[in-house]
Amino acid sequence: xxxxxxxxxxxxxxxxxxxxxxxxxxxxxxxxxxxxxxxxxxxxxxxxxxxxxxxxxxxxxxxxxxxxxxxxxxxxxxxxxxxxxxxxxxxxxxxxxxxxxxxxxxxxxxxxxxxxxxxxxxxxxxxxxxxxxxxxxxxxxxxxxxxxxxxxxxxxxxxxxxxxxxxxxxxxxxx
Length: 175
Fold this sequence. Notes:
single chain; alpha+beta; six-stranded antiparallel β-sheet; 5 helices; 12 strands; globular
């Protein structure tokens, strides 16, 4: 999976995005929803998340949740239409998880999609990175950089270490 950086903002390659800075990861007809790295950095320290109730029906564009930060309160919009089947209860006690890990542990809710073709209306990671680049350039009034990075596979790192000569590892094995 690719990671894309727009200046210092991370965009994960395995998701779809909205112009309101929500992300969606699709698995087996379910849409896991959260906010982007850009959104959490704009909000600042998150102090409360008003989560939806399980079973709530949402239409794409409806408010799914509200996030309160030290700066303001921001809605999180449902990127797809469906039923909320799971919420991240960890956010009740530790809303700052979103600041620490917006793409994994900081997910907000899972929506069972009514119409999976709605993802076609969302932006790919590459499209979102270009959109974000425009926003960042407008904010900074200077050119923003987009760079792609492959996530390192821990197994590949171990294999590459196994191929390093012992004297180049910087320690000696006890014999």
